[in-house]
Structures are given as structure tokens and as C-alpha cells.
Amino acid sequence: MTALTDVAVGATTAPGPPGPRRGARPKLRERFPGLALPALVWYAVFMIGPVVAMIVIGFLSWPGMLVTPGFAGLTNFSRVFADENFWSAVGNSAIQIVVGLPVMIVLAFLLAFYVVQKPRGHRVLRYLLFIPALISAPATAMVFYAMLNPDGLLNGVLRSLGLDGTAWLADSSTALGAIIAVELWSGIGYSAVLIASRLDSVDAEIVQAARIDGAGDWRIAWGMYWPIARDFIGVVTMLQFLSMLFNSAQTVLLLTQGGPGTSTTTLSYLVYRKAFVETDLGYSQAVGIVLFVLGLLGMGAIRRVLRATH
Q1: Which coarse location class applies to the principal site listed for this UniProt protein (predicted)?
Q2: Which of 76, 137, 187, 303 sits at a 20 to 30 Å CA gap from 129?
Q3: 101: confidence class by pLDDT, cuts 50, 70, 90
Q4: Which residues, including other chains, have CB under 8 Å from residue 161's CB and lie 6 or more apart?
Q5: Are the C-beta atoms of residues 260 and 170 closer than 8 Å to each other?
């Protein structure tokens, strides 16, 4: 009996396998999984690499790809900040974002709210909203050029109403607005489809209870759907902000080439023109560095304003 008791006690008090030590560092393969290695290499080569190259070129004097570059120090940046064309581009980009981005996101949210109410034909509507994102930039430019040129569709409609038309793309007072209109047409539907995918997750019973309590569409949209989807809308806003800031060069190039004067020259178009037209690579990448910093600051501001509050 004593022997059996001793065996039982020994069985219950036998030390188990050693657990992980407190504060022990994880193994290297746990911190860097092998499956993520290709993605990390791709990111380092094709994402970080171009940024490093841009910074290096921004400090070089390089008047063309076939010319041996030389070190310029801060000369390119002093030229950039003393250039009136640069500050004109800054102003145009600021107007483009401050005016165009809020209009795009608000209209996209309202359109997404309408879609998630599941009106008749809402499934077809989702596909139709995505069409502008499927049309190439040259095709989009051709459509808007046909609408906005002096003999185009818009002026034809205005003249039929007894109003005077104008050369929308050649008038410095309307050219930038026309560029913003093109970007709104391209981005509202795409953003609405993305936001609608998030709004679909809102519990229908909660919405129905709010309607029973007397809440109308406007209150439900901004009092329920907006707070719930606010963080996701922030992500969509950042994507469209980056698109406006970095990708407007193609629209400007196809429709106005920065003119008339510099009224539609944006920062991204200035980078293109200095690099590929004037072959001033150092100046171009100095502007690119400024553009990169503005992009980071803008994303941080959007994230702070549209972060989740629930």
C-alpha cells in the first residue's frame, strides 16, 4: 500500500516538460515565415528600391539619361522652391484635392448607401458603377475632349438653351475644374462599390429598428452607416487621395498638357515634364521627393480624421 501511494505521489508530482521561458525571444523562422519571404523581397526591390533611387537622383545634376550625372547637393531643391511653376503646381494640386476629394467621397458614400438599400436592379447598378474604372485613360480623355472642346456636346447643349459656351479645356478659369470633373467621373463609382461592400455588413435588424423609431434615410445614413464604415471609408479616401496626387499626370497630359499656361500643371505632371520633356532628372526627382513627403503627410491626416470612433 505504501509503495502504491509512493508511486501515485511520484506520478502526480513528476515534473512536466519545460515550458517556454518568460521573456524568451521567438525563433527567427517564427518572426519571418518562409511564405512571406518572396513578398518581402518583391517589396524591397520594387517598392523600397525606387524610393531610394528617387532620393539619390534628387541630389544629382543629371541633364539626361545619356549624360554622366554629378553630385548637386541641395541645388535641385533650391531651384525647386525658387521656381514659380513649382508653386503653381502646388496650388493646383491643393485645389484638386481639397475640392475634388471631399466631393468624391461624399457622393460615393451616398451612392453606396442607395445601393445597399437594394432598390430594383441594384445588382446591375453595382456593375454599371464599376464601368469607369474599366475604361482606359486615353479612352476617357477622348470622351471628355469630345464633350468639352469648343464644338463639343456640352457647348452644344448650352447653345440650345441660349447660353454661351466656352473652350473649357483652353480657358484658365475652367481647365482645372474640367480635370477635376474627369477624376470625379472616374473615381465616384469605383469608390461607391468599395464602400457598399462595407455597408452590406450592417445588421438589417438594427436599421429596421431605427426606421420603426422614426429615423429617416438621412439620419440612418450619417448616424448609423457612416460611423460604422468610417475606418473603411478612410482607407478608400487614402486610395483616392494617392490617385489624385500621383496619377493626375496622365489626365493632364492627354487633355491640357499643363496649360493654358500653368493653370492645370499639377505636381505629378511637373515630375513627368521635367523628367521626359526637359530631361532635367535631378529637378524632377527633387519634386518627386516633395510629392512623396506630401503623400505621407496627407495619408496621416486622413487617417487621423477618419479613424474609427466606436
Answers
A1: membrane
A2: 303
A3: very high
A4: none
A5: yes
3-state DSSP call for residue 215?
coil
Among candidate residues 223, 221, 219, the one with its CA nearest the CA of residue 196: 221
- In 197-211, which positions are buried (b, 16+ CB within 10 angstroms) versus exposed (e)? ebbeeeeeeebeeee
Alpha-carbon dihedral 80, 84, 90, 96, rounded to 10 degrees: -150
Task: Give Cα separations from 115 to 122, 131, 134, 200, 223 (angstroms).
Answer: 6, 16, 20, 9, 17
When computed from its CA atoms, the radius of gyration of the chain, rounded to whole angstroms, is: 28
Range with lowest mean pLDDT among 108-112, 209-213, 299-303: 209-213
CA distance 153 to 144: 9
Spatial CA neighbour of 245 closest among 271, 217, 219:
271
Burial of 174 (0-12, 13-18, 19+ CB in 10 A): middle
User: Which helix (H) or strand (E) element contains residue 54?
Assistant: helix 49-57
- Cα–Cα dist 113/137, whole Å: 28
